[in-house]
Amino acid sequence: MTPTTETAAAVSARALDLAAEPGLEAFGSDPWWIVLIKAVGIFVFLMVCVLMMIMADRKVMGRMQQRHGPNRFGPWGLLQSLADGVKLSLKEDLIPRTVDKVVYIAAPMVAAIPAFIAFSVIPVGPEVSMFGVQTRLQLTDLPVAVLLVLATASIGIYGIVLAGWSSRSPYPLLGGLRASAQVISYEIAMGLSFVAVFIYSGTLSTSGIVEAQQPVWFAVILFPSFVIYLITMVGETNRLPFDLAEGEGEIVGGFMTEYSSMKFTMFFLAEYVNMVTVAALSVTLFLGGYHAPPPVTTFWPDAGEGWMGAVWWLGKFLLVMFLFIWLRGSLPRIRYDQLMALGWKVLIPIQLVWITAVATIRVLRNEQYPPYVTAVVIGVFFVLIVAALWAWGRSAERARAESDAELEAERRAMRDNPMHGGFPVPPMTAPHYGSSVAAEEPRFQPASAHEREEVSGA
Amino acid sequence: MELYTPIFVLGGIGAAFVVLSMVVGALAGPKRYNRTKLQAYECGIDPTPQPVGGGRFTIKYYLTAMLFIVFDIEVIFLVPWAVHLDALGMFGLVAMVLFLANVSIAYAYEWRRGGLEWD
Q1: Residue A289 sits in the same domain as residue A343
Q2: What is the pTM for the complete model shown?
Q3: Which terminal residue of chain B has fewer beta carbons within 10 Å of its beta carbon, N or C?
Q4: What ipTM does the predicted assembly reach?
């Protein structure tokens, strides 16, 4: 309802007013040296995290596989990754003759630099006193902070694509394509899992989202979103079980096959910094940020105050990081078609239904509809979900029946004709070998339908 | 603008570190010329002289990219709506459900026609 007499200046002033979200007054007023201290602090934290994470990855994986892991360099092998880094920097910096040189050199930078930027909006703690200045333990906050994290993640994909393309070599090209297709697929599910959080928080600023979780964490209220975020977070960072981009058995090193020395290290660094970022984001959006968990706050009300907040944050963050290693130690790598099917056919539809349900219930409650309306709506959603599950089960049943029939036909063909399927290698039991091997027995006994191993998601 | 300046500071530190370590890596390592070392890596066999398949690759990736654009726009459309859902109320909800239904029809069609199969 803009009156026609309103001047352009007034309109733009009002637009600016709308752009300035409330709650960001605590930011943007730090003296320059505090900004510098925080920025350097974040950088050091990221580097230490990456070094420790690589080491912990190998140590914990070792323990999960009944072995020791690296334990030679430094106490308990703590300095192993530092030694690896120095070694990598002293390696020959090869640039293959065929590559597109400019893009080839730019790609590791494009992958690594945005990875650092994303952490600037992560709230690590509440307001503390730093050298006599009251400041938040967060570099900065924006009205669009979560979008900044998503944007930097997207820019990081360019590094992967460009690396794969500029190498002019089959394996990197395939690896780059695979990685980019995977990351963009999971980015959609990730973006959708944020939407439910935004409905509840009413803001995109990370500190605002943390404050909105004061009584209950979003991981509790929005549990499906949290689970899907955890899955997409692993997919986004190309970690096992989703590390198809660099499946050693198939495409060597993936997009970084042609990279060596520090350029290779930059991709490695970017991957681990991205892990740190998505883990920190999960703490921010779902696990209550720097607030102490609710049971603790009942008997220790100011548990999350001051520097203690950073301790709680670190604890939650390390738990999520451990989850990465745990998944890697427990799960086998999935197939590429399963990966894409999980992203497009499972995560996205679930998210769409879930977002609609959350929004509907929230609006009904806000507008004070009588409770039976909400009950009816929940019932409708429930019926829809059951119907969808039933349809899905039926189509799965049909697919299984089809493949069973195929298998049965194969069995019959093998029984009737010993040379069935004998090309290019004739079966050992083929009659013309004329050996003592009985010709009647089929060379291969396909397992019967009920004892066949379940192949899911294909 | 003060909100955004610290991001550039952190980005600057990151960029300086990345560039510096790449320069150090290029200078510190040995340089021993070997013709074979400079070939593209293909498990030891002679590298393919041209880009694989004339630089073409399977259409699946294009399809995924196009789908991504559709859904990414959907996500971007959902974000401001979600932030202001309480203010938009029932009108906003109905509008968004209609939009989601629209997108879902195309999505179901694509699924049915096998656009999401990967083999």
Answers
A1: no
A2: 0.82
A3: N
A4: 0.88
